[in-house]
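Course assignment 3, question 2. Fill in each field.
Student: A.L.
Task: Predict the tertiary structure for the chain below.
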Amino acid sequence: MEKTLLNIAFILTAAKVGGLLSSKLKMPEVLGALVSGVVLGPAALNLVQYSDGIRLLANLGVIFLMFLAGLETNLKEFKKAGRSSLAIAVSGVLLPFVLGVLGASLFFSSRTENIFIGVILTATSVSITVETLTELGKLNTRAGVNILGAAVIDDILGLILISVILAVAGKGGNTSLGVTLAKIAAFCLVSVLAIVFLPKMAEKHADRIRPGRTLLTFSFAAVLFAAFAAEKLGIAAITGAYLCGLLLSQIKPKEYLVRNVKTVSSGFLAPIFFASVGIETDVSGLNGEMLLITLVMFAVAVVGKVAGCGAAARLFRMTRRESLQIGTGMVSRGEVAIITANIGLQNHIISQEVFLPTILVVILTTLATPIFLKLAFTRRSEARP
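Answer field:
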């Protein structure tokens, strides 16, 4: 217990110092938190080891980060972005998948392993993007809303692909492909119905909902229940958390919730999550071949999302600049890719030779995304439509 408390103190201090230094360099604070995790972890000073306590707080960090993103999302704009978000998500899954399979075939002969590598590279984790957009004040721009909408759909498409691969490879356990797809369909249906009807119900009882600790406690319970329900149905917890925030964004004391959730998230849990990504990095087994695989996977990860998502955005008459913003916002892989790779490793679909480069690609895309977004949103000259 004492060691865990000391580790958390190290993480919070280093993450904040790193964030302040990053801010001084005109970069998002989240970048400093990520680098501080790498410095504290096995890759550098080895002062902090990844433990169950840190894992729990990191998981809560990403859940509350996405809950806050949902609270701050403009639901009307989110609904308008429905068709464009769907197209962006589909294009952002297909191109990285195809490029990933082709790139993997240069190094590996197993068709199933190559396909699974393609699946890993379809993943999108917008935790880093959300924090960066929030810092830049761009979360509710047309690009920001489309990124969030596409990320939710992207998550569901990725889960369907994983389920199909596991079923084809005979690794699905006792749960059939049909049952898994039925659960995902049920979650999607309930989410759509909730987004359509619950805001109307909230308006009728708006006067009864008052800001205070009771509201805050029940809201925290609601997001944890939503995250649990999503996981139980085979959907990532962060998707349930985001949708819960989206629903609660319609209640009258929204600003009270945003202010208090931001204090808990940005002040405590989120820095632990971002630093934990760096702490998990251990490059002791890296060699020349793995480095080459990592570079190819990283190139596919960036090009696949920027070109795929950006092209779809252009079809909906978004400017070149907005298309670039959306593409770069979808680059980060984060915990979604790690979870997917873990599933492949545990089911003996991929080897350790693939798992380590995957972790490195997660780190590289996570570090690169805030930089890409900063450049995409702060260019002085507006690109032509």
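Instructor remarks: Confidence is low (pLDDT under 50) at residues 381-385. The CA atoms of residues 160 and 181 lie 7 Å apart.
Grade: pending
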